[in-house]
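Quick one - inputs below.
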Amino acid sequence: MRVRGTLRSVLVGIAFALAAAAKPGDAEAPGIKAHNLALTGRITSGEEGAMEGVLVSTQRDGSPISITVVTDETGRYGFPVERLAPGHYALRIRATGYALGAPAAADVRAEETATADLALRKLADVSGELTSTEWFISMPGTAEQKRPLIECMSCHTLERVVRSRFTADQFVGVLKRMANYANNSTMERVQARVVDRAVPDDRARRVAEYLASVNLSRHDRWDYELKTLPRPTGRATHVIVTEYDLPRKTIAPHDVRTDADGFIWYSNFVEPYIGRLDPRTGAHAEFAYPVAKPNFPTGALALEPDHDGNWWLALMFQGGLARFDPRTKTFRMFPLPPELNDDTAQQSMVMPRFSNIDGKVWTNDVNSHSILRLDVATGAYESVDPFKDMPIGGNRQHSPYGMAADKDNDLYFMDFGDENIGRVDARTFRATIYPTPTPHSRPRRTMLDDTGRLWFAEFAANKLGMFDIARESFKEWDVPTPHTYPYDVYLDRNGVLWSGTMSSDRVLRFDPQSGTSIEYLLPRQTNIRRIFVDTTTTPVTFWAGNNHHASIIKIEPLD
Amino acid sequence: MADKRAENMKNSARASLLLGLVVALPLALAGLAWAGGASLDEDEEDQSNAGVSFFGFAKDLDRGGGVPDAKVSAEIKNRNASLVTRTDDQGHFKFSGFSKDIDPKDVEITCSKEGLKLERTVRRQPNAAEGAASIEVDCLMVKP
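Output:
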């Protein structure tokens, strides 16, 4: 590795930009090379020579902010001068199957371009680098055998499962134990449910037998091929990723949104705080709300703004909702009434968007699979069970989850337990249920666009969906990579869909008109939940939290 | 939209007619849950509370053939809810099973499509060989 500063590299960078502009198909893609560069270099390996699609990350000493760019088809990378202030930077890379030959660093100085050419060495063992998606692809077994594992990713990657040495007998106990952890658990902060959930032996046994067939209980190595997804190429390399490390490893940012002042707000899934990040400086602040049920799991899931700029939190096992006024930095708590607030009460969603219309805020109760509606003025809750009057699916478990509201504050919800989109009329509570075209799709989070279309992620179907409210009709699109299990989707101002996932360490940018897609690989293992796309920037900016690794992620496409 | 559900609908309907099998097997999620909140095995079939399902065609009596992309609604008498789907390219639709406590007689199926009106519906009760789990309802539509 060589590290040197030279002004001539600026000219080299410009030359690269011109060369890239001449590449067929990328003529409209300016790429990172069009900028003056603070740091550049070339990534090579003995096996491949120049390597495209290698993620190169920099982090200045003492800074919580990492910046990542991706090498082009010549193996070149470059960090624009406006992204790297002068200082000493550690470098790291992500290229599955490869590692840095030695620890790498660079000194960035003003008015100069530093150069760091990096030679990578091929790893003999890639097992530590597979994403959950890649484990799913690698493992033998039927779709039915693998399907229960999609829930594992709520708390950890599949590597933990396949690297274990549990026998089937031992796994039965493990599965029963895990069933009693709260949804809002991470490996940094495991939380137990107050009310145990029983797992019948036969079901646990069936899953355990499969898990013991794909882990290391019978062999020292996996007896199946470990398959990896290809590195990024072409437009997927035209991106800058910024990661903002949060000050404690236990922080689990779940839903992430921007405000009009440029701050990033997030719900903390495991601790009783709402968090705020200033992406301009990396400054971080937290605002605590009171813990109403001290012996219950803490943390909030959904974070949504209301018409007045307040943030609403769904308080999960704390039972109820919280409203935070960012001007006064104060909370108003809306606990469930005693008759609803039993030991299993769990509010995961909140939808206050049009509460200004009728003074009502929608939420749910996970355990009873029902919808609740809060009267903000009185604090009273009403309960609606949309499936009581439309009992479809025999014993199928319905579970109202992702929520959106129209301008009349009618509710649209995702039936995450099953396969339906539901509508609840705000005045009559009349429910209309629309099964998705794909059975057992488990629609998860959703957004309602300005033209009356609901966009949603079909978690179990590996699809993105759209429901046209006026036409009462659906469209669906497969996501390009199998076993992605999209969690959420967002439509940007260009009609392009963005989606995040807990499994693949990739963010999808998908054009439903043309069917073309780009998948941006992320620098680290990343568990994404609710996403947000800031459409006030050009190009748009993608935001999400890394729920398991205490960071906020910004993706800036360069084309 | 020629989607997977439409294909499944056709296959399932054929199966129910020819073999007398239940076509609307509900899939159990009951009870079991990971820390993530869903089921240990969400696709395990559990028919213990599976009731009747409905399938059929929207038909154009003037032109002949099925009516694609027609809205099909199922309403249960004295209930404050409805179930809505659309017909496929062949005019076929299916509603998977209701719970056992629903009397099939209380379920009303209607169809609508711009440029057509519903003249009447025809309900065919399954015979004993076909089993009682599926009921065919055809929407017969004409120009207004």
